[in-house]
Structures are given as structure tokens and as C-alpha cells.
TrEMBL record:
InterPro entries for this protein: C-N_Hydrolase, C-N_Hydrolase_sf, UPF0012_CS
Domain CN hydrolase: 1-240
SUPFAM superfamilies: Carbon-nitrogen hydrolase
Record bears the keyword Hydrolase: yes
Protein name per UniProt: Carbon-nitrogen family hydrolase
GO molecular function, one term: hydrolase activity
Domain of life: Bacteria
Signal peptide: none
Pfam families according to UniProt: CN_hydrolase
């Protein structure tokens, strides 16, 4: 199976409409190259462009959905289209990832559960999702996560319990914490004995330099491919069957002890 992670550079001088058209073209170029294409988090606005979220928010089936569905269909690929600021007519904004099948049908939507910012930014501007999301592809089952989710291992264990073998993380990760990005991607792969495909952004979001360095990690924690800091398409071939082999050869997941009580104070 081949995956292409498109590490988009967010240029504040490029309009959302222009970037949407450009990214759709990049997805179409993956026809015959990749089976699965992955885009970063909030690439339409920039993950740290908090002031733009409300102005650029769109309904789930809005212009980005329309453009990415057509691009997936034209390329004949599974497309994790990154995330958009979603405007729910009956609720708050959400940081929502979209996944499309090769026919252009929406296969899943995931509202980010862990919002970054503590008492500001995304944490106060957007609502929190509640549901874990997996998508069954012909070769593997994908578990969907977004950026800050990477710091919360229980989310990924939940995805694995739901059948995930390949964990796809769409992100807008800052350069100043790039070491954490690499470390956590490898940790999530090793502890869950799964592939991790983590796609970040390049450029600068509202004055925050982005880490880039999208990465693909195998179930043993080996880095199969890693991008540089700039805009880049990282394409890697991997064998989804390696997940089952790894879990059989080193069956650590069978030794999980659940329901432990916290220590008494």
C-alpha cells in the first residue's frame, strides 16, 4: 500500500479559495501514485489563525468538502482531507476532519476531541468532539486523530480497540515542539503496534512557525520516511499485514490490565 502525505505550506498571502484549488490539484496528481492521501489540520486557515476560524468556518458539506470529494474521485484515492473549521448550525464551531472514498463519497467525519490552547484559542473557540472514528479501507482499518490528540494515548488505545491498524494524524504542529512530534508519533506506533502516518504543515500560521517533518512510523517504531521543514509530498510504501505479524510475534497488547483503580491518598 502506498500513502502520500501532502505537507502543505500555509502562506498568509494566499487566499483560502486559491489554496483550496491548489491543494485539490496536488491531490489529483497522486492518481496512480498513492492509495491513500493525507492532508494536514486546518490547512484552509492555518491551525493558529484563531481570528480566521469564525470567518472561514463552513458547513460539513461546504466548499472544502465539495472540492476534496471531487479531487478524491478524480484521483481514485482514499483521501484524509485534513480538517476544516466546521460551522454546526445547531452548535459551536468544530475542528472537523473529513475522509473520502475513491468514489468521492464521504466515508467519515471526525470532530477533534482534544482542543489545544488551555484557556484560549481553539480550546475556547471550538467545541469538543465525543466520538472515536475508524474507517475500513480494503487493506487496513484507519483510526483518525488530530494534532493535540497525539498527546493522549488513551484515545489511540480506543481506536485500536475499535480495530485500527493504521493511525492517521492530521496536524498543525509548531516548530518549537517538533521533538515532541517525532517522539509521540513513534510512541503511539510502538505502544499500539500500529503504523502511524502523521501529516503536518509547513509555513507560518499567524506568526507561529510550523514544524513540518511529516512522518511515517511502522509498528516497531522504525521511521520509514520523514519530510523536511518545507512544503513537500512524502510518499511511502508500507505493508499493512505487518501489524498482524508484529502483534503475533510480540503480543504485548494481550497483557493489558484494564480497570485499575488510582492509588488511595
Amino acid at each position: 500500500m502506498r500513502a502520500s502525505l501532502i505537507q502543505i505550506a500555509v502562506d498568509e498571502g494566499e487566499s483560502v479559495e486559491s489554496r483550496r484549488e491548489r491543494v485539490a490539484s496536488l491531490v489529483r496528481e497522486q492518481a496512480g501514485v498513492a492509495d491513500l492521501v493525507v492532508l494536514p489540520e486546518l490547512w484552509t486557515t492555518g491551525a493558529f489563525a484563531y481570528e480566521e476560524f469564525a470567518a472561514e468556518a463552513e458547513p460539513l458539506d461546504g466548499p472544502t468538502h465539495e472540492a476534496m470529494a471531487k479531487a478524491a474521485s478524480d484521483a481514485g484515492v482514499w483521501l484524509h482531507a485534513g480538517s476544516i473549521p466546521e460551522r454546526d448550525p445547531d452548535g459551536p464551531l468544530y475542528n472537523t476532519s473529513l475522509v473520502f472514498s475513491p468514489s468521492g463519497e464521504r466515508a467519515a467525519a471526525y470532530r477533534k476531541i482534544h482542543r489545544f490552547g488551555f484557556d484560549k484559542g481553539e480550546a475556547v473557540l471550538m467545541g469538543a468532539g465525543r466520538d472515536l472514528v475508524t474507517v475500513r479501507l480494503p487493506e487496513t482499518t484507519v483510526g483518525v486523530a488530530t494534532c493535540y490528540d497525539l498527546r493522549f494515548p488513551e484515545l489511540f488505545r480506543g481506536l485500536v480497540d475499535g480495530g485500527a491498524e493504521t493511525l492517521v494524524v492530521s496536524a498543525g504542529w509548531p516548530e518549537r515542539r517538533r521533538a515532541h512530534w517525532t517522539l509521540l508519533a513513534q510512541a503511539r506506533a510502538v505502544e499500539n503496534q500500529a503504523f502511524v502516518l502523521a501529516c503536518g504543515t509547513a509555513g507560518t500560521h499567524a506568526g507561529v512557525p510550523q514544524a513540518g517533518h511529516s512522518i511515517v512510523v511502522d509498528p516497531w517504531g522504525e521511521v520509514l520516511a520523514e519530510a523536511g521543514p518545507g512544503e513537500e509530498i512524502l510518499t511511502v510504501e508500507f505493508d499493512p499485514a505487518k501489524v498482524a505479524r508484529t502483534r503475533e510475534q510480540f503480543p504485548a497488547l494481550k497483557d493489558r490490565v484494564l480497570g485499575l483503580e488510582p492509588p488511595r491518598r
